[in-house]
Amino acid sequence: MTRERIFFWTTAAAAAVLRALAFFRYRFDADEQHHAHVAWGWTAGMVQYRDYFDNHAPLFHILMAPWLGMFGERSDILLWMRVPMLALFAIVLWATYDVAKRVFDARVAAWAVLLLALFPPFFLKSLELRTDNLWVAFWMLALVGIVRRWPAFVVGLLLGCAFATSMKTTLLLITLAIAGTLTWWFRRGLPPTRGGGGLKPRPTLVALLGFLIVPGVLAFFFVSAGAWDALLYCNFTFNGNLAKTRDHLWFARALFPFTFGALVWGAWRKRDVRNAWAYFFALVIGVYTVTLFGFWILISPRDFLALMPLGAMFLAVFLARHSLAVTATVVALSIASLWYYADRFENKTAWHTTMLDQALRLTRPGELVIDLKGELIYRHRPFYYAFELITRSQIARGIIPDTVAQDVVRKRTYIAQADGPMWPPAARAWLSDHFVNLGRLRAAGQWVKPDGSFTIGVPGPYVVLDAAGVAAGTLDGTPHRAPRELAAGAHRWEGAGGVCVVWAPAFARGHSPFHLRDLKF
Predict the structure, then answer these.
(1) Measured between alpha carbons, how far is residue 177 from residues 180, 184, 274, 311 in Å?
(2) How far is Cα 254 from Cα 240, in angstroms, rounded to an integer?
(3) How far is residue 79's CA from residue 151's CA, in Å, rounded to a whole number?
């Protein structure tokens, strides 16, 4: 045991060092930027869904808004937004330990926590600002309550908080109901064992009352704010419309009766295992997995975060039956995978910090920007939807119209995020034609063609620039000496070639397409 303790604490220290490195250096995911933007919307007096887009349940962003608001507008805000994730990470680890200790023993519980902390998908996702971390924290606290037999009202309240954080809780509730029913039914009459002979049904109505409190309060608020229809659309209609863009869903759903039947058959065969709680949690993993693959439209590793603590618990049980060398191999593979997926822990956060720094110099509060998912955080967007996979898929199928060009013009938006493949084709082409590169971002304008012609997409104040600054020449037949208002459409320049027409405030704020900024990080 001495060798095992030394290895355990050495590994725990390594896990802490790696988490500290990743906290400051692991790249910011686009989802983190989106969630920060949604939280910012609350601080700006807007209402989620009604005034700006999001397709997640609202509790996470409401809770994060006061924290974000404490720091003002700053380019390193995402590092500060990761701090609460550390607290949620700690809650999940504690809950994992508590459940594993009560189901198995303290040794299994300790290793379950360490294995979970090093498991690459959980390690990296639990670091990021995302709704899933609060969701998993509430879920694991509810499991602690179930195992410890807390009052049914408290367990229901925790699950209600989880539902107000992520609609994926619906699948967890279905899983708990099916796993609990199978455990109770299959293990009826078995003698008491370490984990209890069977799980006793909880007071359902009391749990339901606890469950409804937080979602009910939020529903009342959104109805009062005139945002209820928008909430329903974003969380249900919008997400559900993804099914219309997927032609293969029938196969998984046709397969489900067979996978679920195999699971039930296996549960019946193993119904007399000694540990009833282990049996129940194994069923939770199985039911959730086969149901997810059978009916979920878009599956990602994030959808399994709720199962990872339970999976770590069973992996710890497996490793406890083998030599320390086997455990060391699993740990080594986890760390090697982390090193790979975290890009060798090189600093990948500076690219967003420099982009946001440029955005804060280029724009003022109240000015709009067009970005992909809210990457510029502190600025509102003229186009309602975020360009995530679900949106892009629906635009491609014509379910959502691509009105980016019209919205940018109508709402006088002069700053855009850099070009890239996530822009819808029509929006990408229009922005490329009517915006010029300034470094991390683009400003409204256009390079003047050799014949002196150019086109303005967004009417507003513009200035003609060369490498030295304001260019000398004639603009639309009159001398060009200072910025002027230009209407949308064709214009003509007479003077030196190689010049660019740019939104005048961008130049006044220190930016030029001839001197790109913030390209090194």
Answers:
(1) 5, 11, 22, 19
(2) 19
(3) 38
pLDDT under 70: residue ranges of the chain: 1, 189-203, 517-521
Nearest alpha-carbon partner for 62 in 30, 46, 85, 39: 39
Cβ atoms of 394 and 382 closer than 8 Å: no
Residue-level pLDDT at 132: 97
> Cα–Cα distance between 197 and 185 in angstroms, integer?
11
- CB-count exposure of residue 33 (10 Å: 0-12, 13-18, 19+): buried
Beta carbons within 8 Å of 243's beta carbon, 6+ residues apart: 249, 297
Phi, psi values for residue 420, rounded to 5°: 175, 170
CA gap 34, 118 in Å, rounded: 26
Does the pTM surpass 0.90? The reply is yes
The partner residues of 323 in beta bridges, in order of sequence, read none
With contact defined as beta carbons under 8 Å apart, do 471 and 480 qualify? yes
Alpha carbon 38 to chain centroid, angstroms: 11
Residue with tokens 């992520």: 166
Long-range contacts of 416-419 (CB under 8 A, 24+ apart): 416/369, 416/370, 416/371, 416/441, 416/442, 416/443, 416/444, 417/355, 417/369, 417/370, 417/371, 417/372, 417/375, 417/376, 417/441, 417/442, 418/442
DSSP string, 446-513: EEPPTTSEEEESS-EEEEEEETTEEPPEEETTEEE-S-EEE-SEEEEEEE-SS-EEEEHHHHHTT-BT
Quote the tokens at residue 65. Answer: 């808004």
| β-strand pairing of 415-417 with 369-370 | parallel
Cα–Cα distances (Å) from 223 to 48, 49, 345, in that order, read: 12, 12, 45
User: In this predicted structure, what is the pLDDT of residue 189?
Assistant: 67
Question: Strand 415-417 relative to strand 441-447: parallel, antiparallel, unpaired?
Answer: antiparallel
Matching residue, tokens 């299994």? 108
How far is the CA of 444 from the CAs of 131, 251, 309, 359, in angstroms? 34, 47, 49, 14
Output the six-digit token pair for 397.
């199928």
pLDDT at 296: 87
So what's the pLDDT on residue 197?
43
Instruction: Decide: 54 and 166 in contact? Cβ < 8 Å.
Output: no
The rounded radius of gyration (Å) of the Cα atoms in the chain is: 27
Please state, in angstroms and as integers, the Cα–Cα distance from residue 270 to each residue in 104, 258, 263, 278, 307, following that order.
Answer: 18, 18, 11, 11, 21
**Structural tokens at position 494:** 């007479």
**Nearest in space to 60 (alpha carbons), one of 9, 123, 173, 136:** 136
